[in-house]
Amino acid sequence: MSKEFREFLRKVGSGTHTSKSLTRQEAETATTMMLQGVATPAQIGAFMIAHRIKRPTSEELAGMLDAYKLLGAKVDAIASGKKVLVLGSPYDGRSKTAPVSPVTAIVLAAAGIPVLMHGGDRMPTKEGLPFMEIWQALGLNWQDLSIEQVQQNLETHLLGFVYLPKHFPLAQSIVPYRDQIGKRPPFATLELMWSPYQGKQMIVSGFVHPPTETNIREAFALHDIAEFATVKGWEGSVDLARSRTAIIGITRGDRFERLTLSARNYGFTPEDPAIGDASEIAAKILSALKAEPSEYLNSVLWNCGFYLWLYGLHSEIEEAIAHAREIISSGTAWQKLEYLRG
Questions:
Q1: Which residue, of 186, 226, 231, 321, has the greatest Cβ tally within 10 A?
Q2: Which among 80, 154, 138, 165 is positioned nearest to 289, based on CA atoms?
Q3: How crowded is the C-beta side of 298, counted as CA atoms within 13 Å?
Q4: Quick one: residue 136, left, alpha or beta (phi over 0 = left, psi -120 to 50 = alpha)?
Q5: CATH superfamily, domain at 3-71
Q6: What strands lie across the sheet with 115-119, from one edge to the other?
Q7: Closest by alpha carbon to 87, among 247, 241, 259, 203?
Q8: Domain residue extents for the chain
Q9: Rounded to a whole number, what is the largest CA-CA distance in the chain?
């Protein structure tokens, strides 16, 4: 048993009236001790559930992010110096709506925007459809790539995927605790924030609850991360819905902009495509890349248009949507997938 970790546990787990938050340094140390197995299984499980009940502060999340930056996978900067768009979606996947992030990333890469994503396998407690199963269904067997090969994909094809079990096994080692405690721990929020990329970037973090967005913004400020966006997307992802208004926060230096976007205002009907298994989603993606009309393609165009605009390729979202449509209809996006398949 770690006596040092026991003090952290006592601090966060003392109850509603007497528990205290950790300092940034304490949160970093506690996270490092969990990742490296210095804390015992009983201590790790107890900390996760106590911290969830207490709710993490932005300072604690900043400290946890310090540990992830220190111990996690690191993707070197690409030679072009282009800003990389890092998409942070929940690792426990999707169970209601069809993900569009993978095809959005392909289209953005075809437009010359480098995109880095990250995730794992099916994750407790939701056990939703993860990105890796979709990549595999598309013929992209990225689960065995080295981190250097991920960087090479990002460098050459402008799209990379960091796979938790392969590239950050220390974080993968604490995944089973999620199943055992039956709840998402604060690590689930951390995964929305973490970026393995070491160069110029813009992080996009999905969220569900407004307090989570506030914590993300404040923790990023503590890390001097000056360019990022938060998206209240499908199931906490960075995918913009069409069935409801998208709530988005954009931070660029000292400037913060709040956006509320309705797909109806851009000519889309308010429908969201339903979830399927990996092969069904892959079929939807292939159909969309062939420009075959569907509600899934409409969601792809809506999301691609937003992200082309967010990155700065267009001053108006309408122009960005038209650009996305051209990338797909011209076959450029399909060709990008073929390049990725090798």
A1: 231
A2: 138
A3: 16
A4: alpha
A5: Transferase, Pyrimidine Nucleoside Phosphorylase; Chain C (1.20.970.10)
A6: 159-163, 115-119, 84-88, 201-206, 227-232, 246-252, 255-261
A7: 203
A8: 3-71, 84-341
A9: 62
CA angle 271–276–281, rounded 5-degree value: 85
pLDDT of residue 342: 85
Mean pLDDT of the chain: 97
Nearest to 186 by CA among 22, 5, 330, 50: 50
Q: What is the pLDDT of residue 112?
A: 98
Q: Is residue 85 a contact partner of residue 200, using CB atoms and an 8 Å limit? A: no
For the domain covering 84-341, report its CATH number.
3.40.1030.10
Whether the CB-CB separation of 98 and 281 falls below 8 Å is answered with yes
Query: Which residues are CB-neighbours of 19 under 8 A, at least 6 positions away?
Result: 11, 12, 13, 50, 54
**DSSP 8-state class, residue 97:** B
Stretch 242-250: mean pLDDT: 97
Query: Any bridge partners for residue 230, and if so which?
Result: 205, 249
301 pLDDT band (50/70/90 cuts)?
very high
Alpha helices in the chain (DSSP H): 3-12, 24-35, 41-54, 58-71, 101-110, 131-137, 147-157, 164-167, 169-172, 176-181, 187-193, 210-222, 278-289, 295-311, 317-329, 332-341
**Backbone phi, then psi, for 218, in 5-degree steps?**
-70, -40
SS3 for 36-49, per residue?
CCCCCHHHHHHHHH
The two three-digit tokens of residue 244, written as one number: 């409801």
**At residue 231, what are phi and psi to the nearest 5 degrees?**
-130, 125
pLDDT band, residue 18 (cuts 50/70/90) = confident
pLDDT exceeds cutoff 80 at 17: no
Common-topology check for domains 3-71 and 84-341? no
